[in-house]
Amino acid sequence: MISSKTVVGVDIAKRVFQLHWVEPDTGEVVSRQLKRDRFLEYFTNRSPCLIGMEACGGSQHWARQLTALGHEVKLMPACWVKPFCGSNKSDAQDARAIWSAVQQPGAKTVAVKTEAQQAVLALHRIRQQLVKFRTAQINGLRGLLTEYGEIMPLGRAALAKGVVAAFERIAERLPAVLIDTFREQWSRIATLDDQINEIERRLQVWHRNDASSRRIAEIPGVGLLTATAAIASIGDPRAFNSGRELAAWLGLVPRQSGTGGRLRLLGISKHGDTYLRTLLIHGARSVLTHSKAPPTWATKLAQRRPQNVAIVALANKMARTIWALLAHERRYQRDFVSKPTVP
């Protein structure tokens, strides 16, 4: 019987799960394998325990299931588990590493998301994949037309205007089978456009029905994609103690390198969610370069430092603002000045 204080490290897989724990009463080290269909059954009749898992594919599902059984689940980022793996790689070694990592003081964990939040992220991932497909199709068509002297203008809208005329010009001297194939390629690009627009329409419906998403969308530079992706990726804002922790989780803080008491700041760490970080940086770039009234501090920073430095600094500020609005359930105020908490 697992006591309430037992810490269990779980290495999940497709079919066989590896468990590792130490019996608190006897000190016995236990390493056990469980089939996938017996995993939940094993924990159903156990006393509540702390279960550590690496944040990977399927971990969110199992975390929700185990939490429903009364257990406490902590999802560990892979970078926090790796230092405890040692030199050899095996399922038993990974489970032991997770067991060690989850007990470390100050260990960072990944928030357990709801199924609705994961559904929104799934829409974002599918849209991102379709955008990559569309870009590949467009670049392929551009390259093929270049072989026949047709240089397409830059930009999606300019390409749409010029490609039909290009087909008519080369149709006079090239085989019909090739021209038909080109037109089919262009038709596939239009189909991808429709699919991407449909996903964005579904995200818009979800966005209108979610108060938190509408609230953070009031921040300059935060649009539909950034707002919905932030709500779904962050999960519970209370998982972060401050806005700076969220910015660090997104990799928007500088890396540090130092020795002998000397500390040197490098470029941003680029840890965490690449997709959400990219959306925030693109939003910050739009505010700084196209907004009629960009933040004064960001404009002054861009005058004395490279523009990308100012853009990342503004993205960092946007991430902190998002956390503040979510954690304190406030509306965005452009001229709001935070005050230190008096103990």
Automatic annotation (TrEMBL):
Domain (Transposase IS116/IS110/IS902 C-terminal) ranges: 214-291
Record domain Transposase IS110-like N-terminal: where: 8-148
Annotated source species: Paraburkholderia sabiae
Database matches in Pfam families: DEDD_Tnp_IS110 (PF01548), Transposase_20 (PF02371)
Name recorded for this polypeptide: IS110 family transposase
Superkingdom of source: Bacteria
PANTHER family membership: PUTATIVE TRANSPOSASE FOR IS117-RELATED (PTHR33055:SF3), TRANSPOSASE FOR INSERTION SEQUENCE ELEMENT IS1111A (PTHR33055)
